[in-house]
Description:
Elements: E1 19-21, E2 24-28, E3 34-37, E4 44-46, E5 55-61, E6 67-68, H1 70-77, E7 87-93, H2 94-98, H3 105-118, E8 122-124, H4 127-133, E9 139-142, E10 145-150, E11 155-158, E12 166-167, E13 177-182, E14 187-189, E15 202-207, H5 215-221, E16 243-245, H6 269-283
Antiparallel strand pairs: 1-2, 1-8, 2-3, 3-4, 5-6, 5-7, 9-10, 10-11, 11-12, 13-14, 13-15, 15-16
Amino acid sequence: MEKKVERPSIEAIDYxxxxxxxxDLFEFDKARTxxxxxxxxxxxxxxxxxxxxxxxKGAIDxxxxxxxxxxxxxxxxxxxxxxxxxxxxxxIPRPIIFRGNTLTESMINYYNEQSINKKNGYILVDEPLNxxxxxxxxxIELYGMNYQIDINKCxxxxxxxxxxxxxxxxxxxxxxSEIFYNIFTNKQEWxxxxxxxxxHGVVILQFPPLSHLDIINYAKMxxxxxxxxxxxxxxxxxxxxxxxxxxxxxxxxxxxxxSPVKKESTKPESEKSTKKARIRRKRH
Length: 284
């Protein structure tokens, strides 16, 4: 059993109610009239300067993190302002600004999902995201067992410490991968000896790149801020992104140890062509 490594104690920051715009974290003042850069409190923007009929609209400079209205950018640079300054445009629904902390969890989830789907450029921080920004590992459930996702070490650690972790090659961080998994014992299996078969209950689990399951830590590994990617990709680990291949579709032979998925055909093309020719002659 692996020795559990204790993380150094770090004082938590309450990010609840803050908003990520274009990947950068902003706070509201108490009157909700200003957006304040969390990393630089001297960088502020009046919400009224961004107010449109249906939303708070504008753009954030990716270098200075300054917020501007589209009109002010056009006035300064012209219609082709994107040729002169690199910005990310955003559109924030008015209820997020003016209803503040009265929004329910379901409403926050709705607005955040809409933002990602429509590329609106913002994410409102709720309690689950607050915990992730404070270092909590994302979790995922596989057949009744909960796992913490540790993409730094390319493994999934079970909550039950008596169980070994699920291990992945280092390439699994950025590439799809697959493991053999026993759904009855909740343990990882390895390829059996030639001539032997898998124990009952073994399936293949096909994973997306592990970075897709934890974009917050992936951003930090890349030297970016923890919030850099949350406006573009879902930050919650999605169990539906893991595909299952049942035992009936697996073929255990020496010839396909590198790829356990049953192949459609292993006959050479020349044999296939000969067979097709025989069929044609029979028809005539």
